[in-house]
């Protein structure tokens, strides 16, 4: 059944293994981030098999689905007050930035007779989650160090997510300074200094990262084979773990310009067109409910994606050297956003391939 996403488990495994070896060589452990593939069980199993330090996901229901794995589970998104029970039940560690939430975690952990690990998030300027204010951070660290039921395990930061800020050595220095201050002030040892995501990877390869940094949370490099500070392919990794396949349901000669007065398209936008004369247009059975066309690239370099609606993608195949027929399939590579949406769409079948 199409559309479907081909998932190459061997290539995924290679990517995880290569990065794990490199980071372990610099004494950096990895939380394997599974949110982009909705914690798909076969992919999450790779994190477990290769013994990463944890599976990390933003949604507690995804972590619940891998509850039977022994590997640690980390909730990446700041916990909602309304989900505290499940957070304590299905994750070992959560990332936090609100004292009210930490207090709820403490109470619930005591109720469940557990110790829940807390990593405090520091905002170093990317302006998504974390404490920007140092005094507030120290107050929170004090509470987290003292409250029962929880254990303050570390601090972390997230960069290149909202503000597009590129991780620099100075961010690492800030993080280390904060960690030292917390350790001295509250007389505790922090297990994790978690220096970011796939965008911080490049710093580890410059051999100048301070030894105190000991954790990264990696998703994109594993699924796309690209680091995210500069978008470069990472040496020794595969960029084609995921491939989208969709089927042609119509193939016809049609004008490139719509005929009639142009009002609105199906999504309320006003479309514009360039007159290229008659063209061979294919409709494939896949649409916005599955993936945004900005996030896919056709394998056939001679075809051009013209547009899409909920369930259709329209492609200009005029220049293609292939002799397409109705019923043929087209293949597309996927960017991070594309992987995210095809893995989330219930209409896209998942097919695992092994070499
Ligand atoms: C998604 C996420 C990551 C992983 O980011 P990648 O760019 O996919 O490596 C790490 N940390 C947090 C808090 C996240 O939300």
Describe this structure in words.
The chain has helices at residues 9-25, 41-49, 60-64, 84-90, 99-111, 134-146, 169-186, 201-204, 220-224, 336-344, and strands at 4-8, 29-33, 54-57, 72-75, 93-96, 116-122, 150-157, 192-194, 215-218, 242-255, 278-285, 296-298, 304-308, 312-316, 329-334, 349-353. It is of the alpha/beta class. The structure holds pyridoxal-5'-phosphate. Pyridoxal-5'-phosphate (PLP) binds at residues 33, 35, 58, 76, 95, 158, 197-198, 217-220, 228. Pyridoxal-5'-phosphate is lined by residues 33, 35, 58, 76, 95, 158, 197-198, 217-220, 228.
Write the layout of secondary structure elements.
Blueprint: E1 4-8, H1 9-25, E2 29-33, H2 41-49, E3 54-57, H3 60-64, E4 72-75, H4 84-90, E5 93-96, H5 99-111, E6 116-122, H6 134-146, E7 150-157, H7 169-186, E8 192-194, H8 201-204, E9 215-218, H9 220-224, E10 242-255, E11 278-285, E12 296-298, E13 304-308, E14 312-316, E15 329-334, H10 336-344, E16 349-353
Parallel strand pairs: 1-16, 2-3, 2-9, 3-4, 4-5, 5-6, 6-7, 7-8
Antiparallel strand pairs: 1-10, 10-11, 10-15, 11-14, 12-15, 13-14
Helix pairs in contact: 1-2, 4-5
The structure holds pyridoxal-5'-phosphate.
Please tell me what the overall shape is.
Answer: elongated
**Helix and strand succession?**
EHEHEHEHEHEHEHEHEHEEEEEEHE
In whole angstroms, the N-to-C terminal distance is 21 Å
- Average pLDDT score: 96
- List the uncertain runs: none
**Helicity, in percent?**
25-40%
